[in-house]
Amino acid sequence: MNKLNIAVLFGGQSTEHEVSLSSATNVLKKMNREKYNVIKVGITKTGQWLLFEGDEAEIKSGAWENGKVTPAFLSPDTSMGLVVLRDGKAELMEIDVVYPVLHGICGEDGTIQGLCALAKLPCVGPKMLESAICMDKDVAKIIFKHLNIPQADWVTVYKEEVENSIETAVSKVEDKFQYPVFVKPANAGSSVGVGKSHNSAELKQHLYDAVKVDRKVIVEEFINGRELECAVIGNINPLGSMPGEIISSAEFYSYDAKYVDDSQVIIPAIIEETKALKIKEIAEKAFKEIGLRGMSRIDFFVHKETQEIYLNEINTIPGFTDISMYPMLMEATGFEGEKLIDKLIELAIAEASGVYNE
Known about the structure:
Elements: E1 4-11, H1 17-29, E2 36-43, E3 49-52, E4 69-74, E5 82-86, E6 89-93, E7 97-101, H2 111-119, H3 128-135, H4 137-146, E8 154-158, H5 159-164, H6 166-174, E9 181-185, E10 195-197, H7 200-211, E11 216-221, E12 225-234, E13 239-240, E14 244-247, H8 255-259, E15 264-266, H9 273-290, E16 294-303, E17 309-315, H10 325-333, H11 338-352
Parallel strand pairs: 1-2, 1-7
Antiparallel strand pairs: 2-3, 3-4, 4-5, 5-6, 8-11, 9-10, 9-11, 12-13, 12-14, 12-16, 14-15, 16-17
Helix pairs in contact: 2-3, 6-7
C-alpha cells in the first residue's frame, strides 16, 4: 500500500503557539512512518510558513525555526498542494491529508479549514463553519442556548465599550451578576486572558487584560462546579469518552494551572455512573447537532451542590501535550497513541470522500 503524504501544521500566530509546539511533537511521535510520509510545516508567530526538514525533537523548544527550513505554503489551487520555494524555484509536494495541530486563532477558528476546503484537501478535525462557531465562545453559547443545552449565563462586552467607559462596562456586568464572575476573551483558548473577578476593581483589570487578546469578551456567572471533560471522536456517529476530572492547582484552571503547575487529572472521573453517562450523552449531542467532525474535547461543570451539569466550551483541536486530557481520555476509550492518529486521519479522508457511516 502506498504511503499517505500527511502535512502536519504546527506553531501558528495565536497566543497558544508554544502549546501547539508541544502538541505537534507528541502527534509526530505517534505517527506510523510505515504508513505515512510526514511533511512538517511550521508557522511562525509572525505568520511565515516554513517547511521543516530537521529533527522533530527541535520543535518543542522552538529551535526548529533556526533549523533546516524552507519557505512553503498550502495553495488553494486544487492541483498544487504544498508549494515549496527552494533555490528560487517553486517545487510542488503532493498532500493527501492536512493535519493541523494549531490552537487558537488562525488555526482552530476555521481559517486553515477554509483553505483546505478551497484546495479540496482532507483536513483532520471539524470543518470551517463548525470550527469558527466553537472558537467564538459568544456565538457558541447562542447555539447551545438554541439547543437547550444547560450552560453558565453570560453577558458580552466589546473592546470599544471598555475603552470608551470602563464604568459603564462594569455596570453592564454588575446589573446581571453577583461576584465572582469569569472574564474570557471570546476567541482564545488554553485559558489565555481569563480572569476570575471578585470585585469591581478586579473586573476592570480583567476586562482590560481580556480585550488585549480579543475585541469581544464574555463575562460568565460563577458556577461552583467540578471541572470535567469528555473527548469525542467520529463524524456523523460520534463516540464520547467517559469523563475525566481536572483538580486545578489554582483557584481556577488557568494557563499556568494547565501547563506550568501540577494540576491533577483523574480518569475516569469519580462520579455517579448515571451522571457520567449524562455528560457523555450531552457531549455526543452537542458534537452531532453542531455538525462537528473528527474530534473535539467538550468541557463541563458539575455543580458541587445541585449536581446540575453545565456545558462550558468545545475545543475543536484539543491539546496533545504530555498532560492533555483528550489523548488520555481517548486512550481510556480504546484509542491509544498510534491508533488514535490513524483513526483521525481515516475520519478526515472519509468526510472529504463523502462517506457518511462513522
